[in-house]
Amino acid sequence: MRLPPSKFECPRCGFGVRPGDTQCGRCGEDLKPKASQPVQVNLSSVRLDRGKGTECSTVRIRSIETIQVGRPDSTMQVRADELDKRERELQERERRLNVLSNELEERAKEPQEKKEPQPSVDMDEVRRRLREELTRHFEPELEALQAQLDEKEAELQEARLKLQMLDAGQEMEAVDEAELARITEDIFRELRSQVGAPLKVEDTGVLRTHITRLDEVLGGGIPHGHVVLFNGPPGTMKSTLTYTILHRAAINGTPGLYLSVEQSRRSIIRQMGRMGMPEADTNGKLRVMDMRELRQEMAEHEGNWRELIMDFVHREQQATGFKVFVLDSLESFKALTEHCFSRQDLKDLFDWFKSLDITVLVISENISDEYDEGDQGEAYLSDGIMEMLMREMTDSRVQRWVRCVKMRGANVDNRYYSMFHDGKEFNMALPLANQPF
Q1: How does pLDDT run across 325-368, given as a tens digit for each residue?
Q2: Could you say which of 72, 192, 259, 333 has the lowest number of CB atoms within 10 Å?
Q3: Cα 207 from chain centroid?
Q4: Distance between CA 170 and CA 278 in Å, rounded?
Q5: What is the pTM of this model?
Q6: Which of 172, 190, 330, 206 is closest to 260 using CA atoms?
Q7: Neighbours of 222 (CB within 10 A)
Q8: Runs of H (alpha helix) within 197-299
């Protein structure tokens, strides 16, 4: 049965519309009149009147009150499915967000719940382990020395027993006093080697550095009249080490001259004073000069800078008689020349140093891998080389290492030594490592 559409309802879904609307606000049905297609209404149910059933000859009416009429709409069904799908996706996304939020909350609470105080480093335990490691490393040598010491002590005890028996009037063979003295000397020599007693150093013909262990490494000190290079990169304390040698020589009565080509005298005196080497301790036997003071003293002389410096050093040596001279540095001295500083010029400079009959310490900024005999021959022309470097350890610490590469006319120790300054003096010891690099 077909009902006439209402003027104020959508003929498709029954949604209320206003007069003049051309499209339904709910289902989007086109409300414009169409001549070729009759307007139909889709109702959920239609109630029929029994009395008028005979008027329709083409429809057979059952004997029921109500007939359910359903007309599926494909467009509405598709949109409903899409909405349901989006709703499910949003619900799934919301579920995932909730799961992630819960995980983040648990992780945020986890460090606070599981956080435990970090154990502090026990330095006593570290020292104990290091001592045990050193003991295991040197144990065979210590056992051998201990066996020798026990043997010597047994011989000494036997000699003492023989002396006691001799004093008691018993007849026995005479004790050799020379042999007893030899045994005693051997025992004390072994004891000194175990406790690390310093070797006796002769002062004749050498310049002592008065630095613990360094004089032993150099076989007594730096031979008189040598030209010695102190090579190393920045920060290896080349200037401090050479100034220390000069300062202690002056304290012990050997005058010296420190010439800085780049740094000012005031800066050097202040820095070295902070390192435990005040100028007043030298009693005027140590003189520090810079280019500014040299320019004032040599204002009336003519020549290039190299000639002026050499002339000044010569006149100062004749006037004061200093025995130790430090040049800081060789590269700065080369830069003062107007032409290329050739190998012959370098040889003439070193020969001139030796003609002064003094000990010369030259600071150089070259390292061992940069020596070039054809270009930079100071390593081959010098009498001695002290190589200084920075050694990076595995625990992010940095150590300063020093090694005597060569020293003509001296029996030196060529091993690397760890060197550090405690604010007053240098200390040297064998480093706890197998390789320098």
Answers
A1: 999 989 888 888 766 778 888 888 899 999 999 999 999 987 65
A2: 72
A3: 36
A4: 67
A5: 0.54
A6: 330
A7: 27
A8: 214-217, 238-251, 265-274, 291-297
